[in-house]
Amino acid sequence: RDFVVMASDIDNYAPYIRAVFDNAPYRFPYTIADEHINVGNSIFNAIEQIISLQLEAFKTEDIMVLFESKYIRERFGIQDVSLIRRAIETANIRFGQRGNKENGTHVLSWDYGLKRMMYGICVSGEPIVDIDGDTLIPLDAFEGSDTYDLIRFWYFMQELERTLLKRNTAKGIVEWGKFIQELVEDLVFQSSEQEDDDYHRLIQYLERLSSFEEISTEPIGFEVFRHSFLEVLNTETKAKSFAGAGITFCSLIPMRSIPFKMVAMLGMNFDKFPRKENE
Q1: Which of 43, 106, 129, 161 has a Cα-to-Cα distance from 234 of 20 to 30 A?
Q2: For 81-103, what is each residue's pLDDT tens digit?
Q3: Does residue 161 contact residue 210 with C-beta atoms inside 8 Å?
Q4: Of 55, 58, 9, whose CA–CA distance to 32 is shortest?
Q5: Contacts by residues 82-87 (CB-CB < 8 Å, ≥ 24 positions apart)
Q6: How many CB atoms lie within 10 A of CB 47?
Q7: What is the pTM of this model?
Q8: Which residue pairs, CB below 8 angstroms and at least 24 apart, start in 101-110?
């Protein structure tokens, strides 16, 4: 408890702090306090990314961002994210769940591109194949152990689509809580396999939702629930001790007691502090 570093927005600095201190030649004990639960590699961040997806757009980069989460990668056993990115580019997948045959965008969709991947694994060469009225050429560009990650990726996409389609039906608040729990189990983290603090905190929040059943069981749309749920994520902080061992990084909170011998500030750039008064 000798040193504290304060910043106006610790969430922005947290990734850089971890990158420096977790890879330093000499390890120093440190604690990051006041960080929101949906920041960094957390279950809550993965949930936020998934429920913010739009099936109508379904852009390639929006999907690839999901694999920045170690939870999702480990849940589906995906080892080589760069391989998946290359396969997506080779299959010419751009946007849309299924696209539109009238304007030709179906050949840029996920459904069409994933079919090319799977038939490319099963069929050698590149014969023209007719599938449900779609004429496609199998993507025979990957073989051996590379195909395992592509099959896992295909399975992930099937689960993702199935989960997102559940949002189309209005539900009571308790049912939406069950939807979030099923989403986590199917796409992010299986509680039966290991322990996780984030998961236990999520369950505590979902259990609190059950108390609303006595007040109202009226179905609400997904967008209403999503807005409320994201508001919770944006206000809750991770449960970590403020005065931990070694160096403590924290937010600049007014009237906070600072029982440290040395205090440093982040973000005090010469053109930012002191703030210039507007005339």
Answers
A1: 161
A2: 999 999 999 999 999 888 888 88
A3: no
A4: 9
A5: 83/142, 83/146, 83/149, 83/150, 84/149, 84/150, 84/153, 87/117, 87/139, 87/141, 87/142, 87/150, 87/153
A6: 24
A7: 0.77
A8: 106/134, 109/58, 110/58, 110/63, 110/157
Do residues 102 and 80 make contact, with C-beta atoms less than 8 angstroms apart? no
Q: Label residue 49 left, alpha or beta by phi (over 0 means left) and psi (-120 to 50 means alpha).
A: alpha
pLDDT band of 178, cuts 50, 70, 90: very high
For residue 161 the two structure tokens come to: 């689509």
Q: Which residues contact 231 (CB under 8 A, 6 or more apart)?
A: none
Q: Which long-range contacts (CB under 8 A, 24 or more apart) does 133-139 make?
A: 134/106, 136/112, 139/87, 139/90, 139/91
CA–CA gap between residue 7 and residue 192 (Å, rounded):
38
| Longest Cα–Cα distance in the chain | 73
Chain length of the chain: 279
Rounded Cα gap, residues 61 and 45, in angstroms: 16
Q: What are phi and psi of 254, to 5 degrees?
A: -60, 145
Question: Once rounded to an integer, what is the mean pLDDT over residues 169-182?
Answer: 93
Cα separation, 273 vs 268, whole angstroms: 5
Instruction: Specify the amino acid at residue 120.
Output: G
pLDDT at 255: 66
What value does the CA radius of gyration of the chain take, rounded to a whole number of Å? 23
Q: Which has the closest alpha carbon to 201: 45, 4, 1?
A: 45
The Cα 65–Cα 137 span in angstroms is 28
